Amino acid sequence: MKFFKILILFVTINFNLNAQNQSSLNKNKQEDITFTIKNVNIIPMTEDNKVIEKATVVIHNKKILSINDSIPVNATIIDGTDKWLIPGLIDMHVHNLADVRMSSNYPTKGATLFMDNQDFMLLYVANGVTTTFELSGRVEHFGQRNEIINGKVIGPRIALAYLVDGGESGNTANTPNDGRQTVRLAKQQGYEFIKVYSNLNAETYKAIIDEASIQKMKVIGHIPTIFKGNTKDAFVPHFGMVAHAEEFSSQTDKYTDEVAKEFAKLAKDNGTWVTPNLSNLVYIAKQARSLDSVKNLSSFKYVHPLMQSKWIVSNQYNKGTSPKRVAYFDSLIDFHIKLVKEFKNAGVPMVAGTDSGTSGIVWGFSLHDELKLLVDAGLTTNEVLISATRLPAEWLEIDDKIGTVEKGKFADLILLDENPLKNINNTKKIAGVFVNGKWVSREQLDNMLSVLAKENDLKKDDFDWNKRGEY
Ligand SMILES: [Zn+2]
């Protein structure tokens, strides 16, 4: 027990001293430490999901070594009495902050804004989010991911999708040949998934998906606007996942149960899964009503000061707002709930995703809001937990590694004070998190969060979205 206390102190100090202390953080990879959680109730999230009461879980070398087996000598004990152990959560729709160039270029210039990767990833860790799906991958995200993998930063697993759009700006392809070549290049560069976007023309969209199938890359994305009126044509083989419920509402002007049912059938028949992303529109509607909804977020103080500035001074949802626009957003919210009900009835697999990084949607914290909204839309707490653990792991094809609490899986785990099957809000009552076998206690999380809030407050005056071109 004494050793455990020293360890906690050691880890806490490391996090607080941040970058200067990277070398000692490296030494503390916890790899040789064996943890034992005693007397804990496991919600394994396996198919039958039978709760294992008062269990003993041993964690060693990043993995779950055993459940209800002997306790190794010298194990660091974590008391799980009256607590609940679930798999780490997966957010299937994020946009991570990483180093970026905000001003004009010259050769050798590089980024002009640098992100502290640990400060950023803390937002996920503090919320038990241990896997994320980055849906606008860029080269900096590979570096960000490597820092986590090599142990310099504690953060979630990150799957990377390369976004392809039509039109003129950004990563674009406007002919089938260009679309295919873009997919092949993304594959060579190391991206694992392709994201299709709104402005693709029909032929290029289909060519991209076909090439992705040849390259064995799964496809997630928007339903291009061009398919409005012929939504069925967008559901081609190998279109793996729709990234927002909003993609369906953009395809119709009739927000009825019948239309929702038709869309659900399209997805079901094509084997396409859906990330409902209900929280996105809920936050957008709030921002269209008032910017106070952003300023008053309890998690706002943890957001990088430049993003704090952007979400206030350049808020696209609040700019030019009107009661008519607010009513429109509200009608979308209602339709998205209908969609979720019909997806459920039709048996379309749904996974949890937030679109975090969009204004007002805070990384990590927002996933708990999404889970609550899915329950409100008619899913059971069990179905919602599946949507944020086992199912997304399956879609990402890493379900042999994560997504359930089972012997041999990586130790991505959340220790909760109360049972989330009883009330989904209990996913927020986090006593500690295992991220790839590294234990971070509530006390450590609180310390790190309070340091981050203070740092952000001190840096606030240095960041103004309107002056970003000067960086
Ligand atoms: Zn997005």
Question: Can you describe what's shown?
Answer:
The protein is of the alpha/beta class. It has 2 domains: 2-87 and 404-452, Urease, subunit C, domain 1 (Roll); 89-395, TIM Barrel (Alpha-Beta Barrel), CATH 3.20.20. 38% of the residues lie in helices and 17% in strands. It is built from 16 helices and 15 strands. It has helices at 2-17, 22-27, 117-125, 139-149, 176-189, 202-214, 246-249, 257-270, 278-289, 292-295, 305-313, 323-346, 365-376, 381-387, 390-395, 442-459, and strands at residues 35-42, 52-60, 63-67, 76-79, 84-87, 89-94, 129-134, 157-164, 193-196, 218-221, 239-242, 273-274, 413-416, 430-435, 438-441. Strands 1, 2, 3, 4, 5, 13, 14 and 15 form an 8-stranded mixed beta sheet that branches. Strand 9 (193-196), helix 6 (202-214) and strand 10 form a beta-alpha-beta unit. The longest helix has 24 residues, at 323-346. It is globular. The protein starts with a helix and ends in a 12-residue tail after the last helix. Bound molecules: zinc ion. The site of zinc ion has 4 residues, from loops.
Attribute tags:
single chain, 471 residues, alpha/beta, Urease, subunit C, domain 1, TIM Barrel, 2 domains, eight-stranded mixed beta sheet, seven-stranded parallel beta sheet, 38% helix, disordered N terminus, binds zinc ion
Q: How helix-rich are the residues, as a percent range?
A: 25-40%
* Biggest sheet record: 8 strands, mixed
Q: Could you name the CATH topology of the largest domain?
A: TIM Barrel
Structural class: alpha/beta
Radius of gyration: 22 Å
Count of discrete domains: 2
Inertia-based shape: globular
Query: What's the end-to-end separation, in Å?
Result: 49 Å
What is the architecture of the largest domain at the second tier of CATH? Alpha-Beta Barrel
Outline the low-pLDDT stretches: 1-27
**Ligand catalogue:** zinc ion
